[in-house]
Design a protein that fits this description.
- By secondary structure, the protein is of the alpha/beta class.
- It has one domain: Trna Endonuclease, Chain: A, domain 1 (3-Layer(aba) Sandwich).
- The chain contains three helices and eight strands.
- The strands form two sheets. It has a six-stranded mixed β-sheet, with helices on both faces.
- A hairpin with a 5-residue loop joins strand 5 and strand 6.
- Helix 2 runs parallel beside helix 3.
Length: about 180
């Protein structure tokens, strides 16, 4: 549907289809996968170092789980890339959300994926700033310092490129 039919770029249609695409890919690879699943800190000793997380609930767009350990193996966010400052802020927030989810799960997921979608011919830039925040950490509203990703975690950015297809748009390729 996303690649062959072409869909209208209306509301959250592309976002919804992107989440479903990533979850279906996880299932195809043998990982139970869900969309918009809430994660919250637990009493798990692995989370004992989390401060400033009280009452926090993070809802990554997509989570893949390891079938045997039942632990998250991939956390993903899917966001439209646009150079407008409001969209850039949304991309930074999505990346920060991945880091928060990583820490909440006891630094379990080894892969954090920021999937950006845009149109062919659009130059995706500004990723160095996002990568720095993910690796070095950041401050949440209220000043709470959040450390960056643990050394074993991989932060990947994938770009989903769309082009016009009839009255809608269709996925042409994915760059990682």
């Amino acid at each position: 549907m996303l690649a062959e039919w072409g869909v209208s770029d209306v509301g959250l249609a592309i976002h919804s289809l992107g989440l479903n695409y990533l979850a279906a890919l996880g299932r195809e690879l043998g990982c139970p996968s869900v969309t918009e699943f809430p994660l919250a800190p637990t009493e798990n000793p692995a989370n004992a170092t989390l401060t400033g997380f009280g009452g926090l609930e993070v809802r990554p767009d997509v989570i893949w789980f390891d079938r045997s350990s039942r632990a998250p193996t991939l956390l993903a966010e899917f966001e439209r890339f646009d150079d407008l400052s409001t969209r850039r802020n949304a991309m930074v927030e999505k990346a920060e959300n991945l880091v928060l989810a990583h820490h909440i799960t006891g630094s379990q997921p080894a892969i954090l994926l920021l999937a950006l979608w845009t149109f062919t011919g659009v130059r995706v830039n500004g990723l160095a700033e996002i990568n720095t925040r993910v690796r070095s950490g950041f401050r949440r509203d209220g000043g709470t310092r959040i450390s960056g990703l643990s050394s074993h975690a991989r932060f990947l950015v994938a770009t989903f490129l769309f082009s016009r297809h009839g009255a809608g748009i269709a996925l042409k390729e994915v760059l990682v």
